UniProtKB/TrEMBL annotation:
Pfam families: ydhR. The keyword ATP-binding does not apply. This is Putative monooxygenase. The keyword Oxidoreductase applies. Keywords: Monooxygenase, Oxidoreductase. It comes from Schinkia azotoformans LMG 9581. PANTHER family: MONOOXYGENASE YDHR-RELATED, PTHR39169.
Amino acid sequence: MAVILQVDFKMEGPFGQEMAEGFAGLAKSINEEEGFLWKIWTENSDAKEAGGIYLFETKEAAQKYLNMHTERLKGFGIDPVNAKIFEVNEELTKINHGPLK
């Protein structure tokens, strides 16, 4: 069953185009993670927050990625990292055109 991983954290920047350019390599590397399907990058420059919404094939894959990503963010001086994992109700998601793959 697919799961959503929701992550957010405080970050001083960069945001917008500067973020897109600076994190392109990271974005490409995420594609190689086990069980990863997609990510929506989130940012709020006014609140100095960033994060993402991910879809993984399994809860185990999402948790493995979260553990690694939390440690990576701590290495950048970002702590705490807020995260939740949710099971996806695929039947209802399909009704509302949510991407499941």
